[in-house]
Amino acid sequence: MAFEWSLVSVAESPSRLIAGQLLDVVEDSSEYRGARSGFHTDRSMNQLFKQPATRSLPPTVRISADIGGTFTDIVLEGPRGRLTHKLLTTPARPEEAVLEGMRHLLDAGGFTFGDIAVFIHGTTLATNAIIERRGARTALIATEGFRDILEIGNEGRYDQYDLQIEKRLPLVPRALRFTIPERTDVRGNVRLVLDADAVKALVPVLKRERVESVAIAFMHGYVNSAHERLVALILEREIPGLFVTTASAVCPEIREYERTSTAVANAYVQPLMASYLSRMKESLSTMGFVGTLFMVTSSGSLTSIETAQRYPVRLVESGPAGGAIFAAQVAAELGENNVLAFDMGGTTAKLCLIHEGRPAASRLFEVDRAARFMKGSGLPLRVPVIELVEIGAGGGSIASVDATRRINVGPESAGSVPGPACYGLGGTQPTVTDANVVLGLIDPAAFAGGRIALQPSRSRDAMKEHIGTKLALTPDMSAYAVYEIVCENMATAARAHMIERGVTLGRHTIIASGGAAPLHVARVAEKLGIARVVIPRNAGVGSAVGFLAAPVAFEAVRSRHMSLDDFDPLIVNDLVEEMRTEARKAVENGADDAPLIEYSAAYMRYVGQGHEIRVAVPSRTLVPTDASWLRSAYEKEYEAQFARCIPNAPIEVLTWSVLLTTESDRVEAHLQSYEMTDYAITPGAHSDVFDGVSQTTLRVPLYRRDTLPIGGRISGPALITEDETSTFVSSRFHAHVDVSGCIIMNLKRKEERRV
Length: 755
Prior knowledge:
The protein is α+β, with helices and mostly antiparallel strands.
C-alpha cells in the first residue's frame, strides 16, 4: 500500500486546529473499498510539502471513535497529521465497527495498535438503550411509602390542557419497585433505623424475578447515605454479580424525583455498558493496545473506563457533546463569540449555544421526551451535561404521511440496518437521505468517497410509494417537502431554545458539523435569519475530532442547605475537601502529570424560589466574611439574568460542587481573517438540483472542497463535495474558504439574491 501524507505547516500558516495539531491526510486505497468501509479524508488544499510515511514513528498516536445510530466515525492524529474514517455502525456489536475503523486507519498510516498512546471513545449506546427500552431488568428499593415516586414525579403536567396526555413509562415497572422501613430526616438524623431483615427478605424475590440491576434511593440519602450503603452491602453479599447503584453515589443532591430517576437510569444501563466496555477493553488488549482508554462524558470531559463503568449515566449524551466541543474550538479559532452549534448526523440533530468559546452547560436534562419541545415530558437526569437541544432529525430519519395527510419526519430512524432505501440494504421507507438523493444534493457515485454506491431509483420509488401517491405529488416535490419539513423542525427547535435562553438569533453564527448538517444548514440559517455559516474542516466527523480536544475532568456535587445568614465556613470547607478527594480519585488514573485546575461553585437562590443559579466560589479555604462575598456574587449573577435583584432578601445555598479538570488548550483567534475576494471560481463540473420553489431542475456548479483556493468566491446555488459530506450553498448565500480551511457562507445582499 502506498500512502502519502499531506501537511500544512503550523509555522507558516495561522491556522491551528485542535490543540495545535498538524493537518492532514492520505490518498485512497482500493483495498478498503466496499459497502461497509467508509473513507479517510482531509486532503489539504494548500499542500506545502509532502513526505512518505515511515514505520519508525514514536508511539504518540491518538485515536477517537464516535458511535452514532447510523455511522461510526474514527479519527487518528499522529506525528504527521490526521486521518479520518467513516463506516456504518454495527448495532448488534458496536465494537466491531470501531475496531474495523481503527484497523483501517492504523494500516493507512503505517501504525499498529501498540502505537496508540490514547484512545478516546464516545457513544450513544446508553441513550439508545433508554429510548428503546432495552436496558437491564432493573428493580428499585425506596423508603417505605415512596414506591411510586417515579410515576408521581413532581406532580407537574408538561401540557396542562392535553386531556389525553401520555407520560413516558418509568424504566422500572411497579412490580419491581420495593420499599424498606427506614427514615432519615432533612438534616441527616436517623428517625427510623433500617430494617435489615426486610432487606434480606427481598433477596429471594429479586432472584425469582431475575433482576440484573438494583437502584437504591432513600429519602434524604444525599445528606446521610448510611442506609443506602448498608443495603448495597447486603445485596452484593447475598447476590454475587448483581449490579447495585446507590442514589447517594450517583446523584447526592436534593429533589428526590430527579435523584431517584438518575439512579434508576444508571442502574438500567450499567450491565449493558459494563459488558460493552469489557468487550472493547479485551479486544483492544488482544490486538496489542497498551495505551490509555478514555470515555467521553455528557459534560464534554474525559473519564477513565473504571469511572465510566460505575457511572454510565454520565455517558448518556457523550456523542453529541463531541460536536459541541468541536464547534467551540472552531469558534475560538475564528474569534466567533456567539455561536449556534448545529450537529446533524444519521439519526439525530443537535443544537447548542456557545458563548465566548464555551458551550452552555447544565446539571439537568431529559431523555426520551414524549413531546418534542415540551420540558417535563421526558425522564430527568441530574448529571453535568453540555446543554443540547436534540431532535429526531438525521439523515436516516423516516418520512411518513399521517391520517391528517401531513408529512412527518422522524423521530424514527432507519439507522444503519436496514438504512435508507438508497443504500440497497433492505430499507424501503423514505428518509431524509433519500430526499437529498432525489433532489440531487448527493452524488450517488461519490457518497462516502464512492465506497457506498447509492441507488437513486430506490429513493424515488420510496418517495413515490410512501409520500407521492398519498398526496398526489411527484417524487421530486415529495423529496422537497421532506427537506423543507426537516429544516423547519430544526429551525423551530432552535427558536424555542433561543427564546428560553433570552438570546437574539440574528447575532449568531452557525457552525455546522455531522455528515448531514452541511446539506441543510443554509436553509436552516435562512429560516432563522442568520447571516453567517461556517462548515469546518472534518465537519463530517466533527464529534470524533472534538473528543480529541476534551479535557480529563470530574465534577463532584453535594447538597447541603445553608442560609447565608447562618453561613458556617467550617462545614463548607469540610464538604469541599470531601468532594475534592472524590474528584481527584476519579481523575488520577487519566490525568497523569497534567496539572489539575479546580473550579468550585455554589447553587444559590432567594428563599422561597424554586430554582438555583450557579455562582463561582473561590477555590480556597472559606472564612466567615465570605458570606457577604457570596451575597454580592449571587446578586451580580441574578441581575445579569433577570436585569434586577431583590435588595436585602434572604439567600440560601442548596448545593455545592467541585470540578477538577486538565483544561484543554485554548485556541487563540486569528488576528486576521481572510475574507472572500471579488474573483469567482470556475467550477470543475455541474450537477442537476431540483428547486421546489420554481418546481424546476437547475444546473448548479459543482466544486471539490480540496481544490478550492482561499478566498475565491462561490455564488449559490452550488454544491461543494468532499468524502465525509457535501455542502449545499443556497441561492441566498455566497461562499469562500477561509485561511483556517473552513467554508464560510455569508448572506447575499438583497440585490444579489436569486430566488
